[in-house]
Amino acid sequence: MRIGGPVALDLLLLGVGEAWLFGLGFVRSPRQALRWAGLAFIVGWCALGSVMVYALVLGFSVGISGSFALAAALVAAGLMLGRAVPAAADRAERPERSLIKIVSVGAAACVVGYLALLGLHAALTASPTGWDAWAFWLPRAKAIYFFHGLQPHLRGGFASFAHPEYPPLIPAFDATVFNFAGGAAVLALPFQDWLLAAAFVAAAAVVLRQRVRAAVLWPSLCLLVLTPQFGASIGEGHADPQLARLVALAAVCGGVWVLERDGRLLALSGILLVGAVLTKREGLLLGLLLAVALTVAARVEGGRGWWRAVVLVPVLLAAALPWQLWLRFEHVTSVPDYSFRTLLHPGFLAQRLGRLRIALEHLPQIALSFDHWILVVPLAFFLALLAFRTRPSLAVFLLGVILLGYVGLACVYWIGTFPVTWYLKTSASRVVGSLVVLAGALTPLVAAELLRPPSDAG
Amino acid sequence: MRAHIVVLGAFSVAALATLTKIPEVFHAARPEPVSAGKRTLAPATFYRLDSRLLVSAAREIPPEATYGVIAGDRVPSRFVRIAEQTLVAYWLLPRRRIDAHSSDWIISIGGDLRSLGLRYTRVVRVGQGSELAEVRR
């Protein structure tokens, strides 16, 4: 394996993301580029990854030179956009009093130290041992790499593994890592996953820092990052943790947008949700629910442009369409876990009410599990309920998106083809992670609004 | 001021709860250098599967060849049969798994090679009821 190869790919993702953040006006100086590097990395992953997915759908195989060409085009687009879009206000640099500074620096050090430990673990110890990882995520990545593209009709190729209907962003990205590494270097993937997890924390921090004091931000992030499930999910090879991080980050951008109405934050939400849509089927469901919750929350907050979040709905549907068309045109048949069309058949649903009841009972138990997520969800709910008086829009957003997501996931288990107990045993703890990470990522924003002096509201 | 106290109290409870989990969380994240061979075979060892089948199949079957899989109750555990079939498909790429009757090789996971009615150039016994057989064409 060429170690320099994946590093070059990571720099490419960073470059694309920085160019797009320049385009949106968030990054206009080297110092800002450094501070926004986490978000830039994830935006680059979403942008380049999405373009690679569409290239694969069109029948192209994206090698190293193709990756550089696509990245160059995306960088050029970002730089051109930056000539038209003015710089965003950067309000992160607020001084703290010395005692409070000790709290924030201590919590930040704890987060950074633990992430560094997880990075070493990912590089030296971790392996993609999750069943789904080697049952279909990794084989699909290997198939793209070895057979130069999706090749849907090749026997034993991409479409031969379980769930060929799942969107291919993660396999496409892993195949690109293999291309840059010069071989199917599966052991390079846990570290790539760790990079995305660390970038998520840095990205959430830099977006939230626009409205949240460091003394609230870092302890809140500490409570999320130090949960057993956050670290355990890194490098397992499942798509769910990355889906959770993308949806949570989109919610953070959306939450700040509700309060500030800076369209650039909504654009960031859109980019991240497009990545989520192409990462896993549930990405579309969660993305659409997030768009609905954002619209309602913005309406509650009042002010101009509340309806703009509705635009996310056609954007996400359009992002999902090429993959669905590819499945249909290439006659890639599968027995999907579920089909939302069955929600239109009352008789079918009535026969399975027992499944819905079991799902509704068990999903909260997993989300509230102390051993998995400690007190992330209770803390978020408690603060959101407190915020109903001072910031109803944020309370509606946080509680709304979690309740909608909970009902949506329960509906998936309601209409699923396999026994509901099997779903609960094999996937529920991963799937629920999206809602828990979202709750944890929004906690600092809600807490900051609760602590904001009335004269400073706005 | 009351909001400050309530929020501080909620964070303090959550922080104390997190503190109780810190030893477990840091223990799980401790980095231990593991050899690349062990790490690549971890999906098999994690599920207590016999990794000799994977290693032998990758050694014997050429990368451009195709293979089919048959399974039978000489490997008594249904879970092991399903897991090994699934894991083999991942492990052996770029070797492609196709229909057993038109493949270059057969991987038997507790199955009966004779049941296919094929003739074999050679058969490699891997242990625990598993065999690899090169089909004579």
Description:
- The complex is a heterodimer of chains A (458) and B (137).
- Chain A is mainly alpha-helical.
- Chain A has one domain.
- Chain A is built from 21 helices and no strands.
- The N and C termini of chain A lie far apart (52 Å).
- By secondary structure, chain B is of the alpha/beta class.
- Chain B has 2 domains: 1-31; 36-135, no CATH class.
- Chain B is built from 5 helices and 5 strands; from the N terminus they run H-H-H-H-E-H-E-E-E-E.
- Chain B has a 5-stranded mixed β-sheet, covered by helices on one side.
- In chain B, helix 4 (52-60) runs parallel beside helix 5.
- The radius of gyration of chain B is 24 Å and the shape is elongated.
- Chain B starts with a helix and ends with a strand.
- The mean pLDDT of chain B is 91.
- Classes of the chains: A mainly alpha (458), B alpha/beta (137).
Summarize the entry for a quick read.
Chain A is mainly alpha-helical. Chain A has helices at 4-23, 30-35, 37-57, 64-84, 98-124, 131-146, 169-181, 189-208, 214-225, 228-232, 240-260, 263-277, 281-301, 312-329, 346-351, 353-367, 370-373, 376-390, 392-415, 420-426, 428-451.
First-to-last CA distance of chain B: 85 Å
Strand order of the largest sheet of chain B: 2-1-3-5-4
Structural class of chain B: alpha/beta
Number of domains of chain B: 2
The unreliable regions of chain B are: none
What profile does the largest beta sheet of chain B have? Answer: 5 strands, mixed
Ends of chain A: how far apart? 52 Å
Q: What is the oligomer described by this structure?
A: heterodimer
Residues in β-strands, percent of chain B: 15-25%
Number of domains of chain A: 1
Strand content of chain A: under 5%
User: Given the structure, what is the number of helices of chain A?
Assistant: 21
Count of strand segments of chain B: 5
Tally of contiguous helical segments of chain B: 5
Quote the average pLDDT of chain A.
Answer: 92
In N-to-C order, the SSE pattern of chain A is: HHHHHHHHHHHHHHHHHHHHH
